[in-house]
Specification:
10 strands; 2 domains; 27% helix; single chain; four-stranded antiparallel sheet; globular; alpha/beta; 6 helices; Rossmann fold
């Protein structure tokens, strides 16, 4: 059984008097411990794809299934899905550790256990040095790592990561991708979006998203040679 399934999913948004079809008849399966990367230009629907997979939004047509069950909007947190977006601001002016601690307390975790889990998540994401900083004091790579730590607090079996390499220098980019790959050892599957073909080496499969259509397959052993945006024919 697939961990995540998108079956003939379509999504439209209204812009003024017209409707724009962002996703068109998208079908995708993701398995436990698998890393899948979706590449596409700006406005191609990559972020929308992740929001549907997270249960943040519902498709206009088709179905999203997680662990064999239809995914209803709002059920992702309880269902083991974490959506990771480093562009989302932190809570107020709290330091990173306090923000992660507050998130645990809100879920009813005991204070001592909440602090231990927050530290554990930061260390696992390589963001321990960021614990006393506030979100606006983080550089792009640090913000990505803290966002991953925040997501790990949910103990997900599926991690959805929106553009983890955008605006990150090459050394940090490769380290972040290797971090995501290493999470599969903890039985976590990864579905991530990329704005360029660079970085596909960390994935088992690479897909392109253009004009609302998802297509293509790339074996992991071929990915390191790519230094240009992925071009895949139907």
């Amino acid at each position: 059984m697939s961990l995540l399934e998108l079956r003939h999913v379509s999504k439209r948004y209204r812009h003024g008097a017209r409707h724009v079809e962002v996703l068109r008849d998208v079908t995708l399966e993701l398995h436990e411990r698998e890393v899948v990367a979706v590449w596409g230009p700006a406005g191609s629907g990559r972020s929308t794809l992740l929001r549907l997979a997270a249960g943040i939004e519902a498709p206009d047509a088709g179905e999203v299934r997680f662990q064999g069950r239809s995914l209803a909007p709002g059920s992702a947190i309880a269902g083991g899905i974490a959506h990771c977006n480093a562009t989302l601001p932190g809570v107020g002016g709290q330091a990173v550790l306090e923000e992660l601690l507050a998130a645990q307390l809100a879920l009813g975790v005991r204070p001592s256990r909440a602090r231990a889990r927050a530290w554990e998540a930061l260390e696992r994401a390589g963001a321990g040095r960021c614990e006393a900083r506030r979100p606006f004091e983080l550089d792009r790579a640090e913000a990505v790592r803290v966002s991953i730590a925040r997501a790990l607090l949910l103990r997900p079996s599926l991690l959805l990561v929106d553009e983890p390499t955008k605006g990150v220098d090459s050394l940090e980019r490769d380290a972040i991708l290797e971090l995501l790959r290493s999470l599969t050892q903890e039985r976590i599957a990864i579905l991530m979006t990329l704005d360029k073909g660079i970085g596909l080496f960390a994935s088992d499969r690479a897909l392109s998203l253009t004009h609302g259509a998802l297509r293509g397959h790339l074996a992991r052993e071929l990915a390191p040679v790519l230094e240009l945006p992925l071009r895949v024919s139907g």
